[in-house]
TrEMBL record:
Residues 75-367 form the Beta-lactamase-related domain. SUPFAM superfamilies: beta-lactamase/transpeptidase-like. Keywords: Hydrolase, Membrane, Transmembrane, Transmembrane helix. The keyword Chloroplast does not apply. It comes from the Bacteria. This is Serine hydrolase. One of its GO terms (molecular function) is hydrolase activity. The chain crosses the membrane at residues 6-25. PANTHER family: D-ALANYL-D-ALANINE CARBOXYPEPTIDASE, D-ALANYL-D-ALANINE-CARBOXYPEPTIDASE/ENDOPEPTIDASE AMPH.
Length: 392
């Protein structure tokens, strides 16, 4: 419900802003310097003076437009934020997990149609796939975890049978270091499955924790070792790492300030409540490298990427899900946005966005570092795409 209300607010805001955008879209072409100025202005408007969104980061790289620029606004730790600042990417991390799984399939280490019981001990998944009295754990596949159709609950957002939910616990217990098994047990002890496998799309961080455990089981290596060896190191993501589990190849930068429901939490150990569901720390430059490598078939083949980009699960109006990847259909928010391309990537609860437009070979990375910035980050992405469409 919270997500639906959030995106309802986004849609209302879009209706207001896109009318103005469309009036000038075709009649007022922009030079690149004008576009840069407008994008900077849009970013600055999203940074909140009440300090729950203290700064913003944005990178745009487009080969077709011959456009490459970093944008910053606001302060980080009391000084102007720099464009190489490291930040928590939140659920953008899911696309890394999905990419790892698909890379392992190409190497014949696993098959995404395998049942998850081939890799996970029965005790790990005990009771979490019970729906209407029937335990479906033997019927759940890796692919169903990837596209959120396994039926498992979401430890991060779903209601609990009793006691505080995970979002409350993150604030109440800032020194709690959550292990992956802790997160799965939270669903086991406090939540119920939402459907039988394959019956409905239900976004689940629990499912992505299970995918991280499958990667470890299939490879005999830790999840973070796989991230570094298979993705970060080969493509030069030298400032990226898995929070609480690894360090970057370059000297580690101070993590950008992070706000969760109004609380500054970038020093909280409870941020460990993500792991393979969204625990990657990165930079604008590194995420741009990843998006380029993925979409240029440097990590997986075209056939595999096409499979990942089969968006047949509707997450909500305007958002469709593939295998660990989101595609925006902006015209579903408002018909006058139909001129905008469908872009592919992922977003995160901390106002993070990483998307790729194949029609213009454009990568857009942004972060507002706050749960208060989730809807604003969608509006900023629309602003950016609208401005880029006017460059002549």
């Amino acid at each position: 419900m919270k997500k639906l209300l959030l995106f309802l607010g986004v849609i209302i805001a879009i209706v207001i802003i896109c009318i103005v955008v469309m009036i000038y879209l075709k009649t007022r072409p922009l030079a690149k310097d004008q576009a840069i100025s407008l994008i900077q202005e849009s970013l600055e408007k999203k940074v909140d003076k009440n300090e729950t969104i203290p700064n913003g980061l944005l990178r745009i790289e487009s080969s077709q437009l011959e456009f490459s620029h970093n944008f910053t606004s606001g302060l980080s730790h009391g000084v102007p934020i720099e464009d190489d600042q490291s930040f928590h990417t939140a659920s953008i991390g899911k696309i890394f997990t999905a990419t790892l799984v698909n890379m392992l399939e190409e190497r014949n280490v696993l098959n995404i149609n395998d049942p998850i019981t081939k890799y996970l001990d029965d005790k790990v998944i005990e009771d979490i796939f019970v729906y209407k009295g029937i335990d479906y754990k033997y019927k759940v596949t890796i692919k169903q975890l990837l596209n959120h159709t396994s039926g498992v609950a979401d430890y991060f957002e779903d209601p609990v049978t009793s006691g505080p939910n995970m979002r409350e616990l993150m604030i109440e217990k800032p020194d709690k270091l959550w292990t992956p098994l802790d997160l799965v047990k939270f669903t086991k002890n406090n939540q119920k499955a939402v459907s039988s496998p394959g019956q409905k799309m239900h976004y689940s961080d629990t499912g992505y924790i299970l995918l991280g455990l499958i990667v470890e089981s299939a490879t005999g290596k830790s999840f973070h070792e796989n991230l570094h060896e298979m993705i970060f190191d080969p493509i030069g993501m030298n400032d990226s790492y898995l929070m609480f589990y690894s360090t970057p190849k370059n000297p580690e930068k101070k993590l950008n300030e992070l706000y969760f429901e109004g609380k500054k939490i970038h020093t909280y150990k409870s941020l460990s409540a993500d792991w393979s569901g969204g625990g990657v720390v990165s930079t604008l430059s590194d995420l741009c490298k990843f998006s380029r490598a993925l979409n240029k078939y440097k990590l997986v083949s075209k056939e595999t990427l096409d499979n990942m980009y089969t968006f047949n699960q509707k997450y909500m109006n305007g958002m469709y899900y593939g295998l660990g990847v989101i595609e925006y259909h902006f015209e579903e928010y408002f018909p006058m946005l139909k001129y905008l391309p469908n872009v592919t990537g992922h977003m995160g609860v901390f106002g993070t966005q990483m998307f790729y437009d194949k029609t213009s070979d454009t990568v857009i990375i942004l972060s507002l570092g706050s749960t208060d910035g989730t809807s604003k980050s969608v509006r900023l992405l629309i602003d950016v795409l609208s401005i880029l469409a006017r460059i002549k």
